[in-house]
From TrEMBL:
SUPFAM superfamilies found in the cross-reference section: Ferritin-like
CDD domains recorded: DPS
Domain of life: Bacteria
Pfam families linked to this entry: Ferritin
Domain Ferritin/DPS: 25-163
Species of the source: Streptomyces spororaveus
Family named by the database record: Belongs to the Dps family.
Protein's recorded name: DNA starvation/stationary phase protection protein
Amino acid sequence: MNGQQQAAPHTVPGVDRQDARQVTEILQARLHALNDLALTLKHVHWNVVGPHFIAVHEMLDPQVEAVREMTDTTAERIATLGGVPVGTPAAIVAARTWDDYDVGRADAVAHLGALDLVYSGVIEDHRRAMKATGELDPVTQDMLIGQLAGLEQFQWFLRAHLESGGGRLSTAGAHTLQEAADRASRGTGPA
Ligand SMILES: [Fe+2]
């Protein structure tokens, strides 16, 4: 993480300005990931087809709403700490470390497989951010803990469609969105 020598111009009382700077950098990365996730969930809402269309189409809108709420809380925490939240599309594209969602019109299960991988990436990075902010700013950490509970529950909603009775996830071992979509489409039979 760069910029650790720079302090925030001002921040909340009782927080070191350099710590605040570090926290806002962590949060900016989470803001990009959440903005990206909200857009991606809508993309799937529009492109899902097949027999499970309505179930998945309708399952995703509450997730979009909740994730949008998370982006708002995260951006406002950055501002509260003295930072400048950046929410423009070009900034997301420039900063992101993940592939753009590349599944277009496809069966519900294929999208759910790809989304499982998307959620895994967001959740892993969110958990790292949660751990990193524990010492620096427990108020921010508390916010991230709440968000993680929601994100993990949403991933469970997806995974319940991808899991066999024996608990095997059809997307296990997938490294790309396409791979996850293909594995999900094939189902939870033996690998
Ligand atoms: Fe809609």
